[in-house]
Structure formats: C-alpha cells, structure tokens
Design brief:
It is built from 3 helices and 4 strands; from the N terminus they run E-H-E-E-H-E-H. It is an alpha+beta fold and 111 residues long. Strands 1-2-3-4 form a 4-stranded antiparallel β-sheet, sandwiched between helices. The mean pLDDT is 94.
Length: 111
C-alpha cells in the first residue's frame, strides 16, 4: 500500500540514504527545522513496519509575480492579484534500497 504521511520526529531519518548526499542530509538534518519554521512541509513514505523511509518530498508556498505572467492569462485574473500563488515541489528523493520499486514516480504523483 502506498501512503505518504507528514514527517514526524519518530520517523527513522538517520537510516535514509539516497544517491544524492545533499538530499540525504536534508532529510536527516534540516527537514524538521524547516517544518518548525513553516518553510516547507515534508511528506514521507514508510515501509509497512515503519522502520524505513522509502522516500520523501517537500512542498513550499511560492508565487509568480504578475509581470511574469503572459498577458492572455493575466487578463483573466482578478485585478487585486499582485502575484499568482503556487506550490513548489522543492525536494524529492527515494532510498537507495528501493531502486526499481517506482517510489520516485509514486511520490511525484502523490505530491
């Protein structure tokens, strides 16, 4: 069963390893701080006994300044808009032990 849940303190972050050291270290050392500061939301996929984070992704709020929006789209927006709100998929990684299981694709769809 594929289900993502918000990252919490008890999840086994120290066990997570992917091919990209920056993404490994982010989950282990920075993600919880970003959540506390409300800079990002982090979601993890765990194995059935919750001993392994199979993968994770982060979402953050963002915006696109109105002057960067094409005219034909901008004309359909309310005049009060200064920017278009967006959601940024900031990070996405899967554990090296889960290569070939389709975890990355499923995380992308879930996000």
């Amino acid at each position: 069963m594929f289900q993502t849940v918000p990252l919490i303190k008890s999840h086994p972050k120290a066990e997570f390893t992917c091919e990209n050291e920056i993404l490994t270290n982010y989950l282990r050392k920075q993600a919880s701080q970003d959540i506390r500061r409300k800079l990002a939301a982090c979601f993890v996929n765990l194995n059935t006994d919750e001993t392994l984070i199979r993968g994770y992704y982060t979402l953050s709020n963002g915006s696109i300044p109105l002057e960067q929006v094409p005219d034909n789209f901008r004309k359909r927006l309310p005049t009060a808009y200064q920017a278009i709100p967006t959601t940024l998929l900031g990070r996405l990684a899967r554990d090296s032990r889960c290569i070939g299981e389709g975890i990355g694709e499923l995380l992308l769809i879930d996000s």
